Amino acid sequence: MRRSAAVSAGNVDTAAAAATVLRAGGNAVDAAVAAGFASAVSEPGLSSLGGGGFLLSAPADGPERLLDFFVDAPGRGRADERLLPSFLPATVRFAGADQVFHAGWGSVAVPGCLDGYAHAVRTLGRLPLAQVVAPAVRLARHGAVVDTAQAQLLSLLEDILTLTPEGRDLFAPQGRLLRAGDRLRNPELAELLEDVGQGRVTGFRSYAVEVQGAADRAGGLLTAADVAAYQVVEREPLRATYRGAEIVTNPAPSFGGGLVLAALDGLAGQPALDGSPAAVVRLADALVRMSERHVAGPTAVRGTTHVSVVDVDGGLAAMTMSNGSCSGVFAPGTGIQLNNVMGEADLHPEGFSATSPGVRIGSMMAPTLLRATNGTRTALGSGGSERIRSALLCALTSLVDRGASLHDAVAAPRLHWDRSVLQVEPGLPVEVLAALGEARPVHEWGGRDLYFGGVHAVSRRTDGRVDAAGDARRAGAVQVVTPD
User: Fold this and answer.
1) pTM above 0.90?
2) Which one of 61, 100, 153, 216 counts the least CB within 10 Å of its CB?
3) Average pLDDT for residues 227-250, to the nearest whole number?
4) What letter does residue 339 receive in the DSSP assignment?
5) Is 59 helix (H, G, I), strand (E, B) or coil?
């Protein structure tokens, strides 16, 4: 049997970038990073080199490694009275209501993606960085076709994305917001990516002075000292077993992985979740307990996406990255839109200025690896703010308890407890809905929705066969690659 590789991501162009690198002999980390660079163009409402993320890798013959390149709280070198952020309000228009979000320079945390991607290739990759970044260079220069999912996100975030002239040039180049079928080009980003590939730019610190100048003029907290001090951190992953399966996921200071493992631990002493009414009620109870362990502020529309890769040697990589809800402001001369994580209320329950400069911000993101009792190894993760934990718990229990296929586990109806109502996707049997409704209020949605996350997953069986499943809720795209 010829050995194959596979990728699952949130966009066709994102997946294609990873596949290109796999065909060239790159390993899973090379391919995941290629997808990350590309997603800054192909998934601009979710991903940016000005955001942060996490990479969990597992080579075929070595231990799992977790790279934390999420964002830090800014403000090193600023006087205490200057650490109160100044936000620009921007309205996000939902189907049922409008909500004001915090954007602008005051919302920007210290970026980590550019440094994290370069560090990952340097320490865990196989190919030269220029080869890894090349698909994203082509995409930024020639343009990515905006798909329906991204068009919806751009429309939702329009007031944020068009706050500045740079944003209007990028997202509304003809005086109107880009729509599905339009092509998004980012020539400044293409030039920067070429510089990254050639080693002329080694990280975000190359733009530290310009970034602080822009922040100073607009009431932001970010300083050149913040950027210079930023470090990618390698952490020991969390490890647990559940019904004999081995699970590895993201550790503290992020909280998503720990919440999922705690929920699985609570379920482990109970009968398997076989899809019966009683079993689904037990799953709902676990979701409620998980939510009570993490009480946060209002839920934000969070720009998060995920990519999972398996290479021809059986190495796995799961990478989740986020740009918050986008800040609307750009690092000068780079084409990089910065994050608005300092303006995300659910990440700052004690107040927007409570976190000291240099402290790594917590996150719900939880790239995860699973080794089933039959030896099948799976990489998975999700976007979706606080629904990440629910999406992963639903997918993991489908895989382990019911022995579902990868595609069925990703597509199965999901539940999420929002602290007042159990949100339920359509497709559950009537008797299951009735049982759920006896315990707590239930709202059944009319269709599948990105609200419930986007689990993109790949797997490799012991005989070498690979599989990939992209989540249709978030424009999931897969490619299976058999190198020459």
Assistant:
1) yes
2) 61
3) 98
4) P
5) coil
Q: What is the DSSP string of 97-140?
A: -EEEEEESGGGPPBP-HHHHHHHHHHHH-SS-HHHHHHHHHHHH
With tokens 């100048």, the residue in question is 213
Residue 300 confidence (pLDDT) above 50: no
Residues forming the active site:
304
**Cα end-to-end distance, the chain, whole Å:** 13
Token code pair at residue 103 = 């954007």
Distance from chain centroid for Cα 9: 10
The two tokens of residue 134 are 């090349």
DSSP at 353: T
Order of strands, edge to edge, in the sheet holding 316-324?
A: 233-235, 65-69, 52-58, 316-324, 303-310, 5-9, 477-481
How many helices and strands, by DSSP H and E, does the chain display?
15, 22
**CA-CA distance, 423 to 406, in Å (whole number)?**
23
Please provide the DSSP assignment of 218-273 as one string.
HT----HHHHHH---EEEPPEEEEETTEEEEE--TT--HHHHHHHHHHHHHTS---
pLDDT in tens, 24-64: 999 999 999 999 999 999 999 999 999 999 999 999 988 99
Orientation angle between helical segments 28-42 and 12-23, nearest 10 degrees = 150
Q: From CA 133, how far away is CA 195, in angstroms rounded?
A: 10
Is residue 476 within 8 Å of 406, Cβ to Cβ?
A: no
Q: Could you give phi then psi for residue 398, rounded to 5 degrees?
A: -65, -45
How many other β-carbons are positioned within 10 Å of the β-carbon of residue 447? 8
What pLDDT digit, counting tens, does each position of 155-177 carry? 989 999 999 999 999 999 999 99
Which DSSP helix (H) or strand (E) runs through 319? strand 316-324
Tell me the mean pLDDT in the region 386-393.
Answer: 95
**SS3 label, residue 57:** strand
